[in-house]
TrEMBL record:
Lineage: superkingdom: Bacteria
UniProtKB keywords: Signal
N-terminal signal peptide: 1-16
Protein name stated in the entry: Putative sigma E regulatory protein, MucB/RseB
Keyword Hydrolase in record: no
Lineage: Bacteria, Bacillati, Actinomycetota, Actinomycetes, Geodermatophilales
PANTHER family listed in its UniProt record: SPORULATION PROTEIN YDCC
UniProt keyword annotation of Lipoprotein present: no
Length: 354
């Protein structure tokens, strides 16, 4: 298993050195093809590599590892509601099987099968970082004037056309997103996310090997073995409702850092979401007992900025801030915005320092 992982991780460097044929496809047209690729069936290996050192609590270590480590995935994709993604490591495999009713997460080493139900709002998991899924999501709200072509390269043994997204919002901390697309299927083969001014991507996810054919249904389906321990994942909707009941009662503004507030299914009223596309900012009041732990995590970072507004820190293009006015509720701000944008947003929160 260890040798297989080493070989697969080394492949992109070798394959990328091969010449690729470009094609005269306009950026807007290429984006349109990407957005229609959700039902394209495929199977193969993908790897995601992140460099975001997120200052989070112990309860979110899985999310932090996802964006700071290298994750090797084996995927079988029949459609958005029927697929399987196995995370492969030197210690074994953990598989996520998606069906119309929810997900099964099978941890072979632990012998546990966990059933989860679909939720409109949930923490990121390895399937969310597949280049096909991530590429579609990042391009879904891009304006035509933010897009340009970026040549071609070889990815997973295929010629991939480059599509570059440069956010127009002044508050954005994302310098650019490069999506490398299979022109025949529209499937994103590689996604690179760069922070403003950075030479290396903060997140790079790509296919290493890809077969553009619908995989058999029996490979994706999952039935827990008789000896498995059956578990039930926490109800995300119920947890959100409970958190909203405990949140301080404040009225968040209609705009922060020059970004308009918007609504998403599953996002509680106590949380404000602002912006669009790859430039998003979330704001939420938090009880004092939670603010203390976050303050400790943020101030532990050597790059943390602390002033009368609170404490803020950047991990690549992701910014995180605890706004602590002393009187009234504390707030958490996070998103793909600059530290200056976080400070500007903090000044406009109810009860915050001016």
């Amino acid at each position: 298993m260890g040798l297989l992982v080493a070989v697969l991780v080394a492949l992109p460097t070798v394959v990328a050195a091969l010449p690729a044929d470009d094609a005269d496809v306009p950026a807007a047209e290429l984006r349109a093809v990407v957005l229609t690729s959700e039902d394209v069936g495929f199977s193969g290996y993908a790897v995601s590599a992140g460099g975001l050192a997120l200052p989070v609590s112990e309860r979110l270590t899985d999310v932090a590892d996802l964006f700071s480590d290298r994750t090797l995935m084996r995927v079988w994709w029949r459609g958005p509601e029927e697929h399987r993604v196995d995370v492969v490591s030197g210690a074994g495999e953990t598989g996520v099987h998606r069906d119309p009713g929810g997900t099964w997460t099978w941890d072979f080493e632990a012998g546990t099968a966990t059933r989860g139900t679909p939720a409109s709002l949930a923490l990121p998991t390895p399937p969310d970082l597949l280049p096909a899924a991530l590429g579609r999501r990042l391009l879904s709200e891009a304006a035509d004037e933010e897009l340009s072509r970026a040549g071609a390269r070889r990815v997973a043994g295929r010629d991939a056309l480059g599509l570059r997204l440069v956010p127009a919002d002044v508050a954005s901390s994302v310098g650019r997103v490069d999506v490398w697309v299979d022109p025949a299927s529209g499937l994103p083969l590689q996604v690179e996310v760069f922070a403003e001014g950075a030479g290396l991507p903060a997140l790079d996810t790509r296919f290493l090997d890809l077969d553009l054919a619908v995989p058999p249904a029996d490979v994706v389906a999952f039935t827990p073995p008789p000896e498995a321990t059956l578990l039930t994942a926490p109800d995300t909707e119920e947890l959100i409702a409970q958190a909203e009941e405990r949140a301080p009662d404040v009225r968040l503004p209609r705009e922060l850092a020059g970004l308009p507030r918007r609504t998403f299914q599953g996002v509680p009223d106590a949380v404000g979401v602002y912006g669009r596309g790859v430039t998003l900012l979330a704001a939420a009041p938090v009880p004092g007992r939670l603010a203390g732990g976050l303050r400790e995590a943020l101030t532990a970072s050597p790059d943390a900025v602390t002033d009368e507004l609170g404490t803020r820190v950047a991990a690549g293009p992701l910014g995180l801030m605890l706004v602590d006015p002393g009187e009234g509720p504390a707030y958490v701000l996070t998103g793909t915005v600059t530290l200056d944008a976080l400070a500007d947003a903090a000044r406009r929160l109810p009860g915050a320092a001016s």
